[in-house]
Each structure stands twice: as C-alpha cells, then as structure tokens.
Amino acid sequence: MTSRGKRGRGKGERDKEERDKEERDKGTKRKGRRDKEEGEEERKEIGMAVVGHASTRAGAHGRTLRGRFGGKGSKERTPCHPWWTRRRGRTCLGAASDTPTMSRWRRLLYEPESWSRLDEVSRGADARVLRRKGHLKEQDQLIEFMMAMHLTHTPVEVMQKMERWLREHAQDAERSTLRRLVPSVGRIHTPLRLVEALKEYDAHASLLRRRFVKPNFAEIRHVLNIAQLRASAEDLRLITFDADGTLYADGHHIEQEDEIIGHMVALLRSNVHVAIVTAAGYPGDVTKFQGRIRGLLEAFQHLHLPKAITDRFHIMGGECNYLLRVTEDYGLEFVAEDEWQSEAMREWEEKDIQELLSEAQNVLLETASYLRLEVQLLRKERSVGILPQQPTIYEVLEDIALSAQHHLTGFKVPCCAFNGGNDVFVDVGNKSMGLEALMDYLHVHPHQALHVGDRFTVSGNDRATRDKCPILWVANPGETTFFISLLMNDIQQQKKTPYIE
C-alpha cells in the first residue's frame, strides 16, 4: 500500500473519531441540563406542604371514619396500606402528593434496609440519629432532679435525702422541701424505702460500684418502682393497668399465652381487685372490649373461676366513660352509669360535650395541617382523634398533643389530650376521674390502690392518675410482667406461702 493510501485512511479515521466525540459532548450536555432541571425541581418541591386543600374546619359531628377503635356506626378497620397509596372511597384529610426528595427522606426514616441506597446519608449512624425518638418518653421533673443530684452526691446519698424529703412531703405537701425543689411533684401516698430498693437493684446494675457512669432515667425509675411495690404489697386492694404499651403492645390484645394472665388471676385469687383503665372506648359494643382481653376471658372460663373472683375484675373504658364487669358466662357487660359515675360526671351536658369535641377536632386538624401531616379523623361519642396516614416521628405527634392541651382550656367539661404513640386523641374526662370513680365504687382508699402505666409524661394519659394513688411506671409489657411478679412474691410472702409463677 502506498503512503498516500495510508494518509487517506488515517484522515478518515480521525474524522470518525471527531464525529463520535461531538456526539458524546452533546449527550453529556443534555444529561447535565436534565440533572440541573431535576435538581431545581426537587429543591422547589421539598418545601411544598404535604397537606392538601381539604377544609380543616369540619362540622360539629365531623367524619366517621375507619380507625383504631371502630365504634358504633363505623366499619371494622382494614389492614393498613402503604402511605404512598390512596384507596378509592377512603376519606383522608390532606394530600397524597409526594416528591422524590420526600420519598427518600421517608425511606431513610422508616426503611432501614434502604440506607445503602440513599445519597443524602453516607453512614448508617446518621440514619439512626434521624430515626430515634429522643427522650420525650422519659420526662419527669422528679427523676430528672434525682439524676442531677448525682453530680454532687453518691447514689446512696441521693436516695437517703430523697427518702427523707418524700416522708416530709407526705406529711405537708404544700410547705415541704421537695415542693420547693420540684414544684410539679404530686402527692405521696405511701412511704418509700429508696435506700433498700437501691441496694436490691444494685445487685443487677452495679450502681454503687460504677465510677464514671451515673444512674440514668430508666434506672432511677426502676428503683422507684421497686420501692413502691414493696410499700403497696401489704395493703393492696386494687391494681389498675393501662392497656396499650403496658399489658400488650400497641394495637394488640391479650392472648392466651401471655404471661401476665397468670399474674392477674393470682391477684384476683389474692382478694385484690384488678381493672384495666384504658382510653379505648366502644360505646354500646361489648364485643370490641371482649376482643381486647379475649385471652384473659378464655383463661377465666378454662379455670372455671367462680363469680366471687371474676366480680373483682373490671374495665374502665374511654378514660372514665364506660365501666364493664364480667358476666356469669365469662363475657362482659356494661355497668349502669348511676351505679358508679361521680357527681361531677352526672352534671355533664351533651351540648357541652359536643362543643368540646368540635373545638378539639378543629385544633387537631389545624395543627396537623400546619405540621404537613396527612391524617384521618375519627370522631366518636366521647372522643375525637387523628390517625397519621403517612409515616411520621414521635415529636410531631407530641407537638399536636401539647397544642391541644394548650388550647382546650376553659370548657365546662374536662378533657384529656394525649399522644398515643401512633395517634393523638382528645377524650372527654381523664383517667384521674375514672380511677377515682372506680375506687369509690369498690370502696378503696388511695394508699390501697396502685396504677401501672407507660404514659406518665406531660403528653401521656396516665399522668393524671398520680394524684389519686401510687403508680408503677413501666416502659413495655415485659416490664409489667416482671414488676407484677415481684409484687405477687411480696403478697404471698406476707401470707407465708411461696408464689409459683
């Protein structure tokens, strides 16, 4: 081949390479423009509200929707569907519109397995920080004060001082040292031997041997619980339980295999009244109440418990609005209101109740809209609440509950606005009134009662019970089972009979 042919072929190849390069450059520019446009669109959309244009000023009776409690005239709740879908016929407040950026944030918060697919978060630790609920479930000024004391005192010194101050506070609550140091502290119904409880708990936690790690919130709560159950065991005549988060996990119910059933039966056989005081309310429908404690009722029937024992079991539903007892065939029935309601409850008028619920409905919907949370409304006879229709974090529900508490004042009917963990509700009355009515109905004095719950924070519905009787603060059903087993051991030891679980 001649040199001229070589030169011609080299020129053709160079022309082809230049054309290919031009095409690649054009493709790169087009892709850059698309990425830039998408980025600008996402930056615009991330600030958009999720809540749509549905009116937040609902009517006096609102909407009757499917929800956690069902209720008269409503349908059974269907399985929860993903937040990004919309079912035809379901009434939701807010819009289902979602942006790609918002979708990634929700995957970050609620789908741990997707962490590796997110560009925004480079480390799993960052995602865990965003997912955590903080310490909103551990709020109590007395416990926080005791934690702060450990900066200058040993654990034994803290408990010695606190034991002395609690004894003084029980004698004169208004002028006590503890009232001055912790103004929000409530009534003390029984003496608490905190030093003995600390030494008992130390066998497990080695609090007295630790040099650099001070007792945390949960550990001080456990010491207080031990001291309280030791003090209550001798004269206990009534023990009441919160339901969700205390006896069983949120949204579940008592099953036959639950260990707590055996402890509850043992308490009943020990001549102790047992009651469940819950926010769940099903007006006129005992079957839904029965479904929540099906395993316990089946245990009553299987053991052929006599009426003298089952008569010691009750349910106070809707905070303080419905009282139920066990029937001879091991079902449930409503107790007539005139048999147990307090004088204050009988003075409530229906128009005042509906006025309260309508205002509560407006506050809940407006606050949810402001926080860009899509919710479903549930309005019932003595309560109104919202159920998030998209994943959210605990702090958002906390803010809605506190907003409702702040606004719902000055009404003729008292109410309880609380964060249920998965929803926010406002109920007519509160657990304090329900517990007080139950104690009067059963002729029980405050020091003879004990309430077990998991929501004693400022937004919890168990908080109101503290002024009516002693409490046990638990974090989950497992803790409930553990502390009740300790309580039963103490009760049986006083009778000189060992407690066999």
- Helix content range: 40-55%
The total of beta strands comes to: 11
Quaternary assembly: single chain
Order of helices and strands: HHHHHHHHEHEHHHEEEHHHEEHEEHEEH
Mean pLDDT comes to: 81
- By DSSP (H or I, 4+ residues per run), the number of helices equals 18
What class, by secondary structure content? Answer: alpha/beta
Strand content is: 5-15%
Distance between the termini: 101 Å
| Uncertain stretches of 5 or more adjacent residues | 1-8, 42-96, 113-134
Radius of gyration: 30 Å
Strand order of the largest sheet: 5-4-3-2-1-10-11
Largest sheet: 7 strands, mixed
Report the principal-axis shape. Answer: globular
Explain what you see.
- This protein is an alpha/beta fold.
- Helix content is 45%, strand content 10%.
- It contains 18 helices and eleven strands.
- It has helices spanning 3-45, 100-110, 124-131, 141-149, 155-171, 177-181, 194-205, 217-232, 260-269, 286-292, 294-302, 307-310, 337-340, 343-346, 350-370, 394-407, 431-442, 477-494, and strands at residues 238-241, 273-277, 313-317, 322-326, 332-334, 375-379, 383-388, 415-419, 424-428, 449-453, 471-473.
- A hairpin with a 4-residue loop joins strand 8 (415-419) and strand 9 (424-428).
- Helix 7 packs across helix 8 (217-232), helix 9 packs parallel to helix 18 and helix 15 (350-370) crosses helix 16 (394-407).
